[in-house]
Amino acid sequence: MISAKVEEYAFGGLVAAVGVFTLVDATTIVARDDNAVGPRAFPYAVGVLLVVTGIAAIIATARGKLGHAEEAEDVDENVRTDWLTVAKLVAVLVVHLVLIDVVGWPVAAALLFFGAAWSLGAVWWRALVIAVVLAVVVQVVFAYGLGLSLPAGIFEGVPFLDG
């Protein structure tokens, strides 16, 4: 059995490594020079925060501040994993990834949001309405609020959906 201290070091190292990967990968983003903030700002910020958090976790572990397992009074350890729900969520994610380029973000995202909610037990018609509204809002915010273009797909040319 691996000691808790080794696990804590591994966690901090993994978080820092993901941060370094994010920072290195952000340098490959092609950006126009006419935007003050640009599309690299968010990945750089996330990468720096991940590196700082990972290093902080390693330092805290070295100082003896280990995380303690919770009592988890509301968790039933006898309940098995619902693999059907996990499979539905994975399938919905794969369908989303395949459909983004085919039908565009609004449709693919609506299917993702609806499928995830339905898989987790939401009322289907309510989840469908919320999913469509949320997908359109995200598309409009990215297109006009951030100036970034998500693929509009079948809605190419629709003024408020096509960034």
From TrEMBL:
Sequence ranges assigned to domain DUF1468 in this UniProt record: 11-151
Designated name of the protein: DUF1468 domain-containing protein
Source species of the chain: Lentzea cavernae
Transmembrane segments: 42-62, 89-118, 124-146
InterPro entries: DUF1468
One Pfam family named in its UniProt record: TctB
Keywords, comma-separated and alphabetical: Membrane, Transmembrane, Transmembrane helix
